[in-house]
Predict the structure.
Amino acid sequence: MSDRKPRRTTPQVEVIRRPAAGTPAPAPSTPAASAQPQRRGPPRRSGPPRPPPTAEQVLALARREHVPARIAKGDLEGKMKCRIWRKLHPEEAKRFDQVYELIGKHAELDFEDAFGVLQSGLSPREFLERKAKTQKKTQVRQARSSVPGDAIEAFVHRLIEQQSQLSVVLGERTITDVLRSVEPVAFTFDRSGRIEKLQIVLIGIQQTWEKISPSLDRDPELSQKPMAVVRQPERRPVSDPRPFLPHAGKKLKISLRNGLTLTERVRAAGPFDLLLGEENQELFLPLHAIVKWEAIASA
């Protein structure tokens, strides 16, 4: 054994050097900071924002890829590609293939019409005919609701209050009676009872009508067999009152379904009827009784 004593080691002391006054302290080194990758090369430059796609660009891509417009718009904006959408939604993509095939074969169909054809099971011709009828019905309803009927209603109620002797022109005959009441679809008279409005061609004070009637032109064929009135307003020759509004105070030439032709001044137009003639000599004319009409120049 060696009798040499073990050497005593002096513990090392860490010397902390403080920065001189006015010198900023270095930022502490953290694992998170050291873990961030260092970007090399020049900094990236962000270019100007991409302009939004136009409607024409969206439509062209949608037609080419057979996808909805929203998917085509997203593709052009850098979102989901059209081909990816078609893979994710095969059933819907198949319907769009059918829609665009219909549009290609029938130029008269737009996008919504083609979908309507598929959903209804109708042929394109049948679908467009039904669509036209529906649109016409809606137009007539909107037209009627946009025209006030105060003047016509006031005239009819005045006839009831005055208990005037009236000439009521029907399809093939004329009756003399007194108006008792009015319903939405019918008039009630003293002797004749309830008469549906669709049967009536014209109503006027008896003296006024007897003065006007002999000078009127008559179509002999329609006088013997008046034109029938169809139940559907959209199928009648005249059902929209709005075209008469600009002619208030002017004369019109009006052909009626029983062959009579009137040349009278328009006093007022209501949702369903016209009021013609001069003051205190008015004629009540339902729109359904009109076959055709035209304005008289400088009248």
Notes: Residues 124-146 form the longest helix (23 residues). The chain has ten helices and twelve strands. Residues 150-295 form a domain with the SH3 type barrels. fold (CATH 2.30.30.100).
